[in-house]
Structures are given as structure tokens and as C-alpha cells.
Amino acid sequence: MPAAAVPLRRMPAPDRKQQLLETALDVFSKKGFEGATTKEIAAAAGITEAIIFRHFPSKQALYTAVLDYKLQSHAASGWLAEVKSAMESNDDEGLLRSMALGILEMYRKDTRFERMILFAALEGHELALAHFRQHAVPFFQSMGRYVRRRQAAGALRKIKPECILMAIFALVHQYGQDTQMFGFSRFGSDREVVEAFVSILMDGIRPARLRKVQSKK
Length: 217
Description:
Helix content is 77%, strand content 0%. Helix 1 (13-35) crosses helix 4, helix 4 (59-75) runs parallel beside helix 8 and helix 6 runs antiparallel to helix 10. It has 11 helices and no strands.
């Protein structure tokens, strides 16, 4: 006789949605949007496809919900509050440090979102990339306004703010990818590495007169 089907465990709707987001994130991060199927996501969650479509009308809707889920969790993390505090107190080093540590913390806790975004770029999934930029660009613009304000005050060199910001983002993201995704060894603790990055950047973006003062301390 065939084995009896195992009944699906009923879950409250919010818990089921959370489960689906986590499961979909895991699958999308391994196979991208094109490679993943709702059937595969359902199997990984131990449910039927029909249950997915009760919560999300399409694979694209599920994918977008996963993006929002992770972007909102990043926004709720404490590092953004530290970044804002550094900006309000004109703490240039503190700002770079908080940004770098926050980015590395995201890599250490969970690389799935970073993998998902990389897949979106490789697949040319413009809807996903546009959605990501919609959240990232306002933060980048806020940082740019801060840099311009500090440049006007004479605290930072007259370098394009976008270049200054890209320098710290590029350093930390590359280090996070190398050590968390590509298997390279760490250079030391994350705090030690971040302090080195901040020192390098501050030497590059401080005006010459301020670099001389700092070197005498």
C-alpha cells in the first residue's frame, strides 16, 4: 500500500510568510531569479506551490518581497543609527568606521542577500536592480551631502564626494566578498582591518594642513 501523505503543518499566516521569505532568499541566493522555481522553493519549505501563491501572486512578487525583507532588516540595524550620529557630530572618522563595520557585519551574519544581488546583476534583472537602487541611492545621496558640507567647512579635501564614498564602499565590500564568499583569509579582526581602512582613507581625504596636525599627535 502507498505511504500515507504527511499532512502539512499549519502555521499562522505571518509565520508562514516569514518562512517563505527565508526559504526563497536561500534558493534565490543559490540559483538567482532565473534558475529558481516556485516549485523548488515550495519543496524546500515543505509546502505546496499553491501555498506560495496564496501569499504572493507570482515569482517576481515573491522575489521583490525578499528584497524588501532584507533591505528593511538592514535599515533597522543599529549601524545606520551610528552613521547618523557620526554625521550629526561631524565625526568623519566615526562615520567611515561605522559604515565599514556595518557593511562587514552584514557579510558576517548572512551573505545570501549579497549573493542574490550579484545574481541579479549577472542575469541583467533590471527590475531587481532598480528596486535595490531605489533603496540605496537616497542613503548614498545623504552621505554625499554630508561630504560636501564637510568640504565647505574645510575639513575634507575637494574631491568628488562620490569618489570618497565609493572608496570606502569598494574597500569594505571587496574585503567582505573575499573573506566571506571567496574563501580568502582575514587579515585580522574586522575592527583591526576597518581601522586600517579608515586610516588609509582619512590620510587621503584630509586637507594637507590637517594631515600635518594629525601626524604630530
